[in-house]
Amino acid sequence: MDALPNYGLANTVTGFCTLFAGLMPLLFSTLTTPHPPRWMLVYWLILITGIFTVTLHGFGETNPILGERWMWAFLDTGSNIVVVWGIARAVLIDYYRPETQRWALPVVTLLMILGVAWHFVDKWNATHGAYVIGFGDWGGFRPGQTWLIGFSVLATVLFFVQRAQIAAAPMRILLLMTGMFLCGLLLATAKNSQIVYPFIPMHALWHVVGAFGFIALWFFNELRFPQRS
Question: Residues 29-48: pLDDT tens digits?
């Protein structure tokens, strides 16, 4: 196995931030007061996508071993889409009436399946060089990434539609999370190897922003759910 290039090392190390952004909420909830199962599932999904982030950049992107690059890329972005599904599902259960949940939960599940399937077909057919939304030499968004962004916007909208039900303190954290999401979206426009002179690895920085966004999500929930002695 060859040594990783600078950007590959940065992407791999910061991939552990994503992994720990799932692990730490699980530990917080285990050592103190568990959050509802729907949110514990979200934290597990974040942990899993963090593992696939590390494996993609560590030995799937520049040092393809244990399979081809497309497989690790599929697992990385595909598991991201599943994380967003988990969040959307939890928000629907938290804030929406049962009659809305009856049709909305199957819809978000279908959207998750369609997004993962489109992403898989794109990677499996080796068409992943094409951007759906391109920014020239800077980078862009491929099919799975494009679906992930749209799905994330939907999950964010689900929160804000019910903003009247969110208390002041959690609402401020939700606004912070939204700002972090928009910042991460800008960083994610860059290709994985994009480094802004002299030392700013754009994709790696996106991992860090996303990881802290997940920690903010845990804190948002910590403010909402009453503590039990």
Answer: 999 989 999 999 999 999 99
126: left (phi over 0), alpha (psi -120 to 50) or beta: left
Cα–Cα distance between 131 and 154 in angstroms, integer? 21
Angle between helices 69-95 and 37-59 (to 10 degrees): 160
The answer to whether 7 and 195 have CB atoms below 8 angstroms apart is yes
Structure token digits, residue 178: 């939204």
Reduced to 3 states (helix: H, G, I; strand: E, B; else coil), residue 201 is strand
DSSP tag of 136: G
Q: How many CA atoms lie within 13 A of 165 on its CB side?
A: 12
Could you say which residues of the chain have pLDDT below 50? Answer: 229
> CA nearest 88: which of 42, 25, 19, 22?
42
List own/partner pairs for 25-29 with CB under 8 A and 24 or more apart.
25/214, 25/215, 25/217, 25/218, 28/218, 28/222, 29/218
Quick one: pLDDT at residue 58? 83
Whole-number pLDDT of residue 2: 63
3-state secondary structure of 128: coil
Please write the tens of the pLDDT for every residue from 131-142: 888 877 878 888
**Which tokens go with 119?**
């992403």
Query: In total, how many domains does the chain have?
Result: 1
Residue 228, domain member (yes or no):
no
CATH number at residue 153: 1.20.1070
Give the domain range for residue 155.
Answer: 6-223
